[in-house]
Design goal:
Length: 640
């Protein structure tokens, strides 16, 4: 019966020969007395056994492996990704703690906007890395059918018909998961992820105009010193004028004045931009007006006049006469000599502001108010800031008392402050005129301020602190402004300063930085693991040329025989149908693609109709046709 099979004109062959030359015996079912009918062959005999063994007749060709997927190169790219991700986090930390990074105030690239530059260069940095992982993913998909063939005995759908390159990435994910090609699956996910790197890199940097502080110096142009022209009253008159203008026009404090504080004037160094602030430690004078309300106030009529009698909590008392013929709105200021120190000059004595109002629409008695003020001043070393744009002074903080010798806190003033509204008589008509203007101007300014209130003057009288607050605020501003000219003299010294200006600074955005850093580190680690495992799986594969060309495909299949099953115009479904029932693998000796028919008959049949399982799977392999060089494969195999 065995002879009948071996003499079949399509299947005549000698018993397959062991690779080392020992004959092998065909095995048939024990105890079987009848002939086993073979299946008919679907394609011509394979001639792979005629291919010379590599390395016997010519030099053994080296293994082809693309440079871009070599393990050391992938490790280098992964290290760059991880290092760049860490660098981004470090840059974010520095950006947050150092108020960004310095950039030129003027764009050095006049042909490109700042926004373009901050998005272009980070994107340019990640594009090569994103391109690298896209190419390596393409390589892994390109290699997968050959790796599957190297594992052996796979159907056409998972080997020669499998084309991950032609599929879109969504389909690649589906089929790679279906066929359990997990390295391809993870690599495709990485390729999807790298698409996020470019938009994140484009939004990573931003240039903002922000306050930035640097150590600098300033020029102090004033120092504590009594003005030699103080008796001319020019500074007092100008200060009354400013206080009056401030009430009428809603002005704030002038430069170097902040509330009760007057600072020695200072200037930034030449060339400093006027879009920031300058912080210094300098000399500051604090003026306190110490105003209080009356304890009791009476008004009596006498000879066409009203006489106001005021008593204050500090045991001071004073009288003031209002002439009925002088109108229904009157005001004035007098020195409180009864409360002054013995022998004190009237220019330094306490003062009392008087306010009178008669509502002509009613028959009610007139209303009168009196405010007692006793100014004082102190000199300190202060810390303050100045707005370089308009010169306004910021908050002032006293650091220590001013102890340097001077003629304000020392002789002749000895710390006394001019009350600024009552002056010694002068024979100079101009000085006398200025004194009168100041004396009437300042209480008039307070009265004008009261009349501007929503309820008018009456509302200020109705408020028990109305006149006190109005007088204190305006009188304080007046004395602070006057102090700049009266108690400070010319100087020119350099002092330390902190310069804060609005400058362009380069910032690393928090959200894009965290996302980009995390993705780059994750991609680097994942890609390194995937390619390390892929390099391990490629050890069974020996390709000597890139498998993408038509010539390389023909070289792998031209002697396998199964090509006759296919026609040039077969579509994918027809090819799948024609190749059904076949299993494919790579021949270990030659690297050619070998097809073998699926065993579909009785399980006791140990002989494949396409050839012996342990040799070349060729159905017509004859021992006398094997050359010596064809008995060896790429790798040494132990035979029993």
């Amino acid at each position: 019966m065995l002879r009948l099979i071996l003499n079949h004109p399509r299947l005549q062959c000698d018993a397959p020969t062991h690779p080392l030359g020992r004959p092998r015996t065909l095995v048939m079912d024990e105890g079987t007395q009848h002939e086993v009918a073979p299946r008919p062959l679907r394609f011509r005999n394979s001639t792979i056994h005629e291919i010379p063994t590599p390395g016997t007749q010519s030099n053994r060709p080296p293994r082809y492996e693309p440079f871009i997927i070599r393990t050391w190169f992938v490790a280098l790219a992964a290290a760059c990704m991880i290092g760049l991700g860490i660098t981004i986090e470090v840059a974010l930390h520095i950006s947050s703690t150092q108020n960004g990074f310095h950039v030129p105030e003027k764009n050095v690239f006049s042909f490109a906007s700042t926004q373009f530059l901050t998005s272009f260069f980070p994107t340019l940095l990640v594009v090569p890395l994103a391109y690298f992982w896209t190419i390596t993913d393409w390589m892994l998909r390109w290699y997968q059918p050959y790796i599957t063939l190297a594992e052996g005995n796979v159907p056409a759908s998972r080997s020669i018909l499998l084309d991950y390159i032609a599929l879109n990435r969504i389909a690649v994910l589906f089929y790679s998961f279906k066929y359990k090609h997990y390295l391809v699956y993870v690599s495709t996910l990485v390729a999807f992820t790298v698409a996020l790197l470019q938009p994140l890199a484009g939004s990573l940097l931003q240039v903002q105009q922000v306050p930035h502080t640097v150590v600098s110096t300033a020029i102090s142009t004033r120092a504590i010193a009594l003005s030699p022209d103080v008796s001319q009253l020019d500074a007092f008159l100008a200060s009354v004028g400013y206080a009056d203008a401030a009430v009428y026009s809603g002005l704030g404090d002038p430069p170097y004045v902040h509330g009760a504080w007057t600072a020695a004037s200072f200037e930034p160094e030449p060339g400093v931009p006027f879009n920031g602030s300058l912080a210094v430690n300098t000399t500051g004078l604090q003026t306190e007006v110490n105003c209080i309300n009356t304890e009791s106030l009476g008004l009596t009529s006498s000879g066409g006049n009203y006489i106001a009698q005021a008593a204050f909590p500090n045991t001071c008392s004073a009288n003031f006469t209002f002439g009925i013929a002088d109108g229904n709105q009157q005001y004035g200021v007098t020195n409180a000599s009864s409360c002054a120190l013995e022998g004190q000059d009237i220019a330094f004595q306490p003062i009392i502001f008087w306010y009178y109002f008669q509502d002509m629409a009613t028959t009610d008695d007139p209303q009168v108010s009196a405010i007692f003020c006793q100014p004082s001043m102190k000199v300190f070393i202060i810390q303050t800031t100045m707005n370089l744009n308009n010169g306004t002074l910021g908050d002032c903080t006293a650091l220590q008392n001013f102890t340097e010798p001077n003629n304000v806190t020392g002789d002749p003033l000895n710390g006394q402050v001019f009350n600024g509204v009552v002056f010694d008589a002068s024979s100079n008509v101009y000085v006398a005129a200025r004194a009168i203007a100041i004396n009437s101007g300042l209480p008039g300014t307070v009265y004008k301020y009261a009349s501007q209130q929503p309820g008018g003057i009456q509302s200020v009288f109705n408020d028990s602190y109305g006149w006190l607050n109005a007088t204190s605020n305006i009188y304080t501003q007046y004395l602070a402004v006057a102090a700049q000219a009266n108690y400070f003299g010319q100087a020119n010294t350099t002092i330390p300063a902190l310069l804060t200006t609005d400058v362009p600074r380069l910032f690393v955005e928090t959200l894009p930085a965290h996302l980009l850093s995390s993705l780059m580190i994750l991609i680097g680690i994942t890609g390194l693991i995937v390619h390390a495992l892929h390099a391990r799986s490629r050890r069974k594969l020996w390709l000597t040329s890139p498998p993408g060309s038509i010539a390389s495909i023909v070289s792998l299949t031209s002697r396998s025989g199964f090509g006759e099953l296919l026609l040039p115009y077969d579509d994918e479904s027809r090819m799948r149908s024609r190749l059904s029932g076949l299993k494919f693998r790579l021949d270990q000796r030659t690297g050619a693609i070998v097809a073998e028919q699926d065993s579909g008959f009785d399980a006791s049949d140990k002989v494949s109709l396409l050839g012996h399982e342990e040799v070349y799977r060729s159905s017509m392999l004859r021992t006398d046709s094997l050359s010596g060089s064809s008995r060896y494969s790429f790798k040494t195999k132990d035979w029993p």
